Amino acid sequence: MFLTVTPDFSLPLADPVLKFLIILVIILASPLLLNRLKIPHLLGLIIAGAVIGPYGFNLITRDSSIILSGTAGLLYIMFLAGLEIDMGDFRRNSARSLVFGLYTFLVPMLLGTAVSLWIFRFSLLSSILLASMFASHTLIAYPIVSRLGIVRDKAVSIAVGGTMITDTLALLVLTVIVGMATGQTGNGFWIRLGVSVVLFAAIVLLLFPLITRWFFKRVNDSISQYIFVLMMVFLGSFLAQLAGLEAIIGAFLSGLALNRFIPHSSPLMNRIEFVGNALFIPFFLLGVGMLVDYRAFTSWETIKVGGCMIVVATAAKYIAAWLTQKTFRLSVDQRRVIFGLSNAQAAATLAAVIVGYNVILGTDAQGEPIRLLNESVLNGTILMILVTCVMASFAVQRGAHNIAVQEEFDRSGEEQPTEHILLSVSNEETADELVNLGLALKSPQYKGGLYALKVIENHNANDKELKRSRRVLQTVVRTAAAADNAVEDILRYDLNISNAIVSVAKERNITDMVVGINRAKAIQPDSLGRILENLLVENSVGTFIYNAVQPLATVKRQIVIIPERAEREAGFVQMVSRLRSVAQNTGTPLVFYGSLDTLGVLKKLLAGKPGTFAYVHYADWSDFRPILRHVRPDDMMWVVLSRRGGFSYNAEMARVPRYFSRQRPLNNLVLVFPVQVGINEGTRYFT
Prior knowledge:
The chain is an alpha/beta fold and 687 residues long. It has 25 helices and twelve strands. The strands form two sheets. The chain has a ten-stranded mixed β-sheet with strand order 5-4-3-6-7-12-11-8-9-10, with helices on both faces. β4 (450-456), α18 (463-482) and β5 (487-493) form a beta-alpha-beta unit. The longest helix is centred in the middle third of the chain and has 38 residues, at 375-412.
C-alpha cells in the first residue's frame, strides 16, 4: 500500500513546501517580467508581497518565518552597505557624509515638526517623533547600485555614510521622546544611554576586527567563514539593541568592522552577495509589501494624513539631496542617487511608528486610549512606505544607470590595458592563496584573464601523480569561480618546469605571473632556487614571487620597498597599476619606501586614484633595519627587485630574499620583478 498525501490548498497556505515554491517563483519571475517594462525588480517584489499577502489574495501570511527572513534581509542590506564601501573613499568623503547626514536629518525634522504642529495639531512630543520618522530612511534601493557596479561612486559613499548618521540621530530621538513621554528621562537615563552607545561602538569597531583576524588566520573552510560572518552581523545587531539603538545600526557598523577582511574580489565576498541577493533581501522586500493594507486607504483621514506625510518626507529628502548637490558640486544623476537612496521609508520608520502607537499617554472622555501616534499615522505610514519605496526605486534606477553608462563611456575612450595573469601552482595547500593574490592583482572592472599552470616533470607520470595535478588545478578553478572569475587551467608535461612556464607565458601573451615559494626550502643564502632563477630570464613578464604566511584577507597594510631609478624600468607603470589594484581589492593602504625621485613619480601616477597611499623617503639598501622597525605582524611586504643589468639594479639585491626570510618569517612576502625588456636574454639575477 502507498501512503497518499492530499495537498491542502486552503487559504492562507499552510504547506511550507508550497509557500516556499510560490516565493521562489516570484523572486525568479519579478526581474524577468519587470525588466522589459523598465521597472526596478525591487518594486516588483514589494508589489508581489502586497498581492500575495494577508491584505491581498491572502496566499501567504506574514508569519514568523517571513519576519525572520525579512529581518535578516534588512540587516543584510545594511551590512553590505558597510562591507562594500571603499574605506579610502569613505574616509575622504566622511566630511561630505556628515554634511549630508545633517542635511537629511535637520531638514525633515524642522519641516516635519512644523507640519505636525500646525496642520495635524499634534502635541510637541508627537510632532518631534513624527518628524524623526521622516528623517530616518532605509537603503532599500542599495541592491540597484550594487548590481550596476557604482557602489564606489562618491554619491553612494555620501548617501551610505549619511544614512548611518541620520538613522542614528532619528532613533536616538525616538528613544528620548518615548522616555520623556513615559517619564523615564532622569539623570540615569542619559548616563545609561551615553555609556551604552559608546561601549557598543567600541566593541564593534575595535573588538570585532581582532576576533575576525584571529578566526580567519585559523579557519580556512569557506562554509565556516561564511557562518562566522553571518554570526558577527547578528551579534553586532543584537549589541545595538542592547545599547538602545536599532539593529540596522549594528549591522552597518559590523560591515565597516569586517570591511578590510573581506576583499571585494574574494570568494567569500561573492558568497555573501549571492546569498543575500538571492534569498534574504527578496524576503525582506516581500515582507514590506505584505504590510500594505488597501482597506486602510478607504478612510479620508488616513488618505489625508498619509498624503501629507508623503509630500513632507519626499520634499524634505529632495531638499537635502539638492543642498548636498549644490554644496559639493555633484551631477544631477548623483543627486538622483542620493535622493533615491535616502527617500525610501521602511525599517526605521516602521519601528518608530509602532513604538509611538504602542505608547499610551492616557484615556479620553470615552475611555479610549490616547496614543503618542494615532491610528491614522500608523496607516498613513504604510502608505508612505509604499509610495516612497516606489519613488526611490525609480530615482536610483535612473541615476545609477546614467552614472554606470557614463563610466563605461569614459573607460571606452581610454586605452584598455591587457591583463593576462598566470598562476604557477605546484601543490593544493598553496593554491588558494595564489588565486587570492592573482585576483587582487586584477583590475576590479575586468573578468577573466586568469590562467593556472601545473607542470608535470615526468612524461611517464603515474595515475596518482596525474590525479594529484588535476586536483590542484580543480582547486584553483573552484576558488576563482567562487569569486565569479573564470580560470583557464593548463596541464603541461615538460622535463624543465621553468621552460614550461616561460613557454606558456609566450603562448598565452601573459603580462604577469605569480609563483609561490616556501622560504624555508626555496631561498638559499645565494640563490632563489634553480626554477625561479630560470624564470627571471623571461624579462617581458612582470613576475611576483609570493610566500603566503597568513591569509591575504587578514593583512592590514601593504609595505612596498622600491629601489632608486625603478621609475625608469619599462614595467614600472604596469607594476604600480597592479599594486593599486591590490589596495583597491583588499581595502588596505599602500605605504611606499623609496627615493625622492621615485616617490615623486608615484605621487603623480596615484594622484586622484581611489585608495590610501603613504610615501616614506628611504634609499639605503645596505640597511633595512629602519624599515623593519615599522613593520607590524599583519603587514604584507613587497620588495621590488631588478634583474642584473636593469636601471634599478644594485648589488645589495642579491641578499634581499634571504634577509627578509630570516628577519620577518611571519610576514607575507612578495618579490616583485617588473618588466625589463631591454635586458639581454640569459642574464641571471645573481652573479
